[in-house]
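FORM 7B: Structural annotation worksheet

SECTION A. Query
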Amino acid sequence: MHPQPTNTISQLTIFKFWSPLAATWLMMAVEGPFIAAVIARLAEPKFNLAAYGVAFSFGLMIEAPIIMIMSASVALVRDRLSYLKLRNFLFALKILITIAMLGLIFTPLFEEIMYGLIGLPPEVAQLTYITLILLIPWPAAIGYRRFYQGILIRNNQTQRVAYGTVIRLISMALTALGLYFFTDTAGAYLGAAAMSTGVTLEAIFTRIMAWSSVRTVAYTAPNPATEPLTYRGIIQFYYPLALSSMLSLGVRPLVTFFVGQSRSALESLAVLPVINSTTFIFVSVGLAFQEVAITFLGDKNEGFPALRRFALRLGLITVSLLALIGYTPLSSIWFQRIGGLTPELTEFARIPIRIVCILPGLAILLAFQRAILVNAKRTGGITIATAAEVVGMMSILFVMISGINAIGAIAATTAFVSGRIIANAYLFTRTSSCLRGE
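SECTION B. Predicted structure
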């Protein structure tokens, strides 16, 4: 049953609901460092890490329109009619993003972007091409999985979401280790094959585990007192969410372009995937908070005080933990011994990781702000905030690289943090009006 928010909700109740989702995100966050560590131990790690980072950035950009389907599923799927309509909407999105992926790979667009726009070295561009081919099933599988995860969350079955992620991690790790020990597969190819295998199997198992929840929804008649969900209503609700994801994830290839033109470009392209995956470990628990807040806020935001207390504590813990890596000798242990980076690249990553230490706290704040707007059905503000974040980020990146010739990794991480602060600042006013009932 969908949990009912109250103004007396306890921190323990929030924690019990949040922890399986956080575990899911944490397990997914482990993927990046694990894959990067394996690639770093294979031949030509600098080229392969760069190629994998570029391909993964474009995969995220193409995945962007579908990634918010979980929030839509949590918020909108209430009965048989809403389930069928949102599922059909999902299928249409899956077809469109797969066509976009194929268009990027198998048309002249690939060479125009990789050689002409980004200016990748031939060795990196050739590795990126095959890596993207191996990632073809990845975006559609992500959308399918997140739709059914949303149904599980709405029916208070968050543990099953975590079980699916365990399947994903095991299959990903077995694929990566199998290719590492028994083949001479290039590192970038290994990473893409492992990611696609893990996500596809997770999507299949999530659908199986959601079977009973889907049956419950399928036998639930629409409430005559509520307005039935229509495709127009879905589009009006979802397009701001999709657009915000497209802006935030689509900016990654632009960052790659600027970093490719920067000072110490190859080193920056090599360490940024490791820095991003490390940061994501601590940011990920904040991402899990969005669905928790949507679930518990309530029609009149009566769950807000308890959720705010939980978010503040969570933010303090995650920022402190990332700072331990950035500002203590743990950075050498993490990047060199665990991440497999060379001493040169480890030293190169030290300043960028310190810059992003505040990002986990900002991510939790953003997840909370978005949840408030989704709960109020005012998703348009999310798009504006994301646009402001992207514009601010790209402006700072342009000035730092073209204006003051900054090192690419330092410019990129500074831009990430600055852009996020801009988004949080804008959403502060929008969420305040929602909380006041205006």
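SECTION C. Observations
The two ends are 30 Å apart (CA to CA). The first helix runs from residue 11 to 40.

SECTION D. Sign-off
Analyst initials: ____
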